[in-house]
Amino acid sequence: MRVVITGGAGNLGSKLREHLETADWVEEIVAIDVAPFTAGKKTKVVVADLADPYDERWRKEAQAADGIVHYASANPAPNSSWAESAASFDMTANLLEQAGGGTKPCRFIFASSNHAMGGYKDAPLPTDGKLRMSTPQISGTRYYDDGYKWGSAYGATKALGERVCAARAAATNGRITAVSTRIGWCQRGENLATTIAGSGGGDRGETDEAVIKRNALWYRNMWLSNGDHNRLMVAALRADASKWPAPAIVVSGMSNNTGMAWDLEEAREWIGYVPEDNLWADLKAAGIA
User: Fold this and answer.
1) Do the beta carbons of residue 68 and residue 62 sit within 8 Å?
2) Sign of the C-alpha dihedral computed for residues 169, 170, 172 and 175 taken in this order
């Protein structure tokens, strides 16, 4: 495959890019970002602005791609402004328009986020306690950072991105097949379970112990290890779409964390994702839980 990775210099883009460098089924990696960076021998670096629909530097790469993994964002954080989130949505729409050049099949992986369903941190879960593709969306996570804030713009961008992927896949009659992955908490660097053992960074200044405990459970259960992140994306790139209920699907992107609300059965069935890590097992081994 010829795989395009947007946001190729970022946290997740770098992790996947380095992993695919060793994959014998990947012929070339095209890593797109807004600034130059150094990459491996199999990677072609392209400096381009995905928010510009006329930028030929990225357009020709998207048109030639067998697979696109779209991480790029104007601001990949829940404090993203509406203007930044609108620019991020433009990137997704622009890429989908060029994917496959209008003639060839293309697998499009949209790096959605747990924030697409972030309202369930505080709202009641479905009756079966699981969050899956068919669960009504409540986007944006409410978090405490010297006062309550709500990642509404960022979460809405991810929720709408999932829907535009579905619309584009349907419009192309499955020539473009799309997997939106609701990525959990994948920290920079080693990304150990033990380094999000507290509040997850969302309770700075909160004093209510019951709220802190509830929020910590939500954040911990979103953990996605580096290994499982790479396994998730590889599975999404290589999956047989004939097994899917539609040409575009949405799957949870977490590790196999015991007792979490995020359902992984659809990811296992539809793309063959087999997570190997479990935050609670790691915390137990470290004597924390």
Assistant:
1) yes
2) positive
Domain 2-139+152-194+224-279, what architecture?
A: 3-Layer(aba) Sandwich (3.40)
What does the block give as tokens for 113? 């986020």
| Each residue's pLDDT tens digit, 53-92 | 999 999 999 999 999 999 999 999 999 999 999 999 999 9
Residues 6+ apart with CB under 8 A from 144: 202, 203, 204, 205, 206, 211, 215
Domain range list for the chain? 2-139+152-194+224-279
Q: List the structure tokens of 17.
A: 């890019």
Query: And the tokens for 272?
Result: 């063959």
Q: Tell me if the pTM is above 0.85.
A: yes
Q: At what angle do helices 82-98 and 152-171 cross, to 10 degrees?
A: 20
Sequence-ordered alpha helix ranges (H) in 73-208? 82-98, 152-171
